[in-house]
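hey so u asked for the seq, here:
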Amino acid sequence: MKTAAILAELNPLHNGHAALIEHAKNVRGADAVIVLLSGDFVQRGEPAVISKMRRCRAALSAGADLVLELPLIYCLAPAEIYARGAVLTLDALGIVDEMLFGSETGDLQSLSSTAEMIDLLSEDPEFHDRILAAMRDGDPYPAAFSKAVGASGHQTDVEDPSALIPADRPNDLLGMEYVRSIRKLNSAIMPVCMRRMPQGNEISSATKLRELIKNDVSTIRPFVPDASWREVSEIAVSDSERFAEPDDLSQILMYRLLASDPKKLSEIADIGQDLGQRIYHSRLSCEHFGSYAAALKVKAFTLSRIRRSLLQLIFGITQKERSGMLSEKATLLRVLGFRENARNLLSRIAENSSARMIVRGADFHADLSGSEKRLAELALFSGALYDSLTLSASLRKPEEEKMPVIA
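ran it, structure tokens below
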């Protein structure tokens, strides 16, 4: 039985996502497709526009057979760690043959060559030091990387070494990190790259769709499958549920800022001393999540990194614990939903996986310890926080009581 996997945020699920699932089945010949879904908070450093359970239903309707949740600690990480966490989670299933992803170029050979070169350069500790030094001088990461490559004396096949880190091609960058992660973990999963469809009458990026949702939700209709539209439109007319926005986090962020000192801030994942000092000295000026993150922006720190850092402060995720989890390949297999005729997937995972599977609420508390317990705690907290932002009190329920979607 051939099993393919897709890592996605589906924020929201659009026609391009549906095409990737269809490609996995009809072109690659997968008997089953697993979607590893970012939860209620995503890598851009903000809450997902609609809940993970709604996105899970849309994915199952689009052809996915099983939807799992990527642990929060990896959802809120930079591309390299986000990819590593996803690959180690898929590898832990023990049944995944291929990992499909879309990219701007669709050129797997080029992405693999770049991944090999970056791995080679990364073995030199001075290479990292040069990157950090250039970023302290105000260079954004691609320019700092270019300078470090030049200083290393390593020959490249491109005139501009910064092109190896394509800031204007984020999906190529992420695809390259998938390839690196598969190699580093010595995984048998095969990467499969599909060129992203150009935007047009029926294809639009999730970023653009989120903007349309804010302004006129009806305008996204041509760009999303029926099931995704149903989930979005239900929220649009609801009196008890709303779309999530970054500024919904303003109050809890202000509390976390006031409760922190420079040492605690510097220990949070991706903050460090320099950004930690900026955050500490400006903490009293925080009024809204979005405007505060923008005010912290300088050339050395991307806005996405700042927003992720602030979210990791909210959840108390430290650099030390995230590094430790990566080292021990810690993950949880949280089942969000599955097709009725795909129950055999759960049985196969139970027989072959090397990680704990969470299906029922009781699984969150059954004999969990160490990293597994921490990942479960983050899942419970993040789910409760998201619901407090988007649902009226009468509709909220503990994360443990949310049963998997069965389609």
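The two ends are 21 Å apart (CA to CA). Residues 71 and 375 are 7 Å apart (CA to CA).
lmk if thats what u needed
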